[in-house]
Amino acid sequence: MQVTKLRSLLGFIPTIVAAAMLLVVSSSVRQHDKTVNAADVKIFKADDPSNLKLAFVTNNASEFWKIAAAGVHKYEKEANVQVDVKMPPNGKTEEQTTILENLASQGYNGIAVSVIAPKDQVQSINRTAKGTNVITFDSDCAKSKRILYIGTNNFEAGKTLGAEIVKMLPNGGKMAVFVGTLSADNAAQRLGGIEEAIKNHNIEIVAKKEDATDRAKARSNVEDVINAYGDLNLVCGLWSYNGPAIAAAIDASGKKGKVLAAVFDEEQGTLDGIKSGTIQCTCVQKPFMFGYLSAKWLHDLAVEGNAIKLPDGGVIDTGVDIIDASKVDKFAKDLAAMKAGG
Question: Is the overall model pTM greater than 0.85, yes or no?
Answer without folding.
Answer: no
